[in-house]
Design brief:
CATH class of the largest domain: Alpha Beta
Radius of gyration: 32 Å
CATH superfamily of the largest domain: von Willebrand factor, type A domain
CATH architecture of the largest domain: 3-Layer(aba) Sandwich
Helix content: 40-55%
Shape: elongated
Number of domains: 2
Strand content: 15-25%
Order of helices and strands: EHHHEEHEEHHEHEEEHEHEH
Distance between the termini: 50 Å
Number of strands: 11
Structural class: alpha/beta
Number of helices: 10
């Protein structure tokens, strides 16, 4: 929490001063003697009232003063708010190894379900595009706000052959830069705003090693870094994953090292997903983060409301616990 007018926090000095004053008033001896013929009865009646409850009004009053004192300084908090200028490209591997069933029901089916969950968690203002790659990359859906078009595009994904990882990265960077330039956001070779924040991100899911393509994964990552686009990578599958091709059992372990290196080099993060549930959680988590930026929000009204409620509570409590003659 920060404050627009921190100097006004000096008002909070009234809180301990009022508390000290209250303490002295409680310890001050009575100035007047009370005439009462039966002191034992008076002690029984008065003694039950000297409990902690009689301090509740004062405590609520001090809390009210504290809340109002903070309000004077105009407190602000940092919140994650949707960035209407942001876009993300979902890059998904549709090579033959995505037919493996070590991730139920298959790797590709689990990926499609997780991508739908990403759309549900992402801000509505986030433009999302889809690039699928096997022997070569293909733009399935250009970045758009139309969630139904994206869902339909996900439904069309089918396993093919080969893994052109480097080419897929390069095509995704090109798509992100074209979309950003079309929206009039790019001011330089990098897809960033005037404050240096990335306007686009890439979410890359793959389950194997590169087997096709003109560019290496490193070259694709270099293009993403040059454009200032962070790449978040997800390695899907287990070390024991296999597929059957022409009656041959072929092992298809994920290339975790390459994907992790791509994420680190471009300023993103890498994730492992060995189950459909883990994959869905990764996409849901990224959906709640990507396309948002931290913004300051003033919360003065909340502290004023809290102070007013505490003040009303202090008055009410004083009426309840105030001593009454029997």
């Amino acid at each position: 929490m920060s404050f627009e007018a921190p100097a006004l926090l000096a008002v909070l000095l009234l809180v301990p001063l009022v508390g000290i004053g209250y303490w002295f008033l409680q310890r001050r001896p009575s100035r007047y003697a009370v005439r009462y013929p039966n002191l034992e009865v008076l002690a029984v009646v008065a003694g039950g009232r000297r409990t902690w409850k009689r301090h509740v009004p004062a405590a609520l009053l001090l809390l009210s003063l504290g809340a109002l004192g903070i309000a004077f300084a105009r407190p602000t908090v940092t919140v994650a708010a949707p960035d209407e200028r942001a876009s993300v490209v979902l890059v998904v591997d549709v090579s033959g190894s995505m037919r493996a069933q070590d991730v139920q029901p298959t790797r590709l089916a689990a990926a499609k379900q997780a991508m739908v969950s990403f759309l549900k968690n992402a801000p509505e203002s986030l433009r999302v595009g889809i690039v699928a790659f096997s022997n070569e990359p293909q733009v399935v859906v250009s970045p758009t706000l139309d969630r139904q078009e994206l869902t339909d595009g996900i439904d069309l994904l089918e396993p093919a052959f080969g893994t052109a990882l480097g080419d897929a990265l390069a095509r995704s960077v090109e798509l992100a830069r074209t979309t950003t330039a079309t929206k009039g956001q790019a001011t330089s070779a990098q897809v960033k705003d005037t404050e240096g924040r990335a306007l686009a991100s890439i979410l890359l899911l793959s389950d194997g090693f590169q087997t096709r393509g003109l560019l290496s994964p490193g070259q694709g990552a270099e293009r993403a870094r040059a454009a200032g686009i962070p790449v978040f990578t997800i390695a899907l599958g287990t070390e024991g994953g296999t597929i059957v091709d022409r009656e041959q059992v072929i092992p298809v372990p994920p290339d975790r090292e390459t994907l992790a290196a791509i994420a680190e080099y471009t300023g993103g993060e890498s994730f492992d997903a060995e189950t459909a549930g883990a994959l869905k959680r990764v996409y849901q988590g990224l959906g709640s983060r990507v396309g948002r930026r931290e913004k300051p929000r003033e919360v003065t009204s909340a502290f004023v409301a809290a102070g007013a409620l505490l003040l009303v509570g202090a008055v009410g409590a004083a009426m309840v616990v105030a001593p009454r003659l029997p």
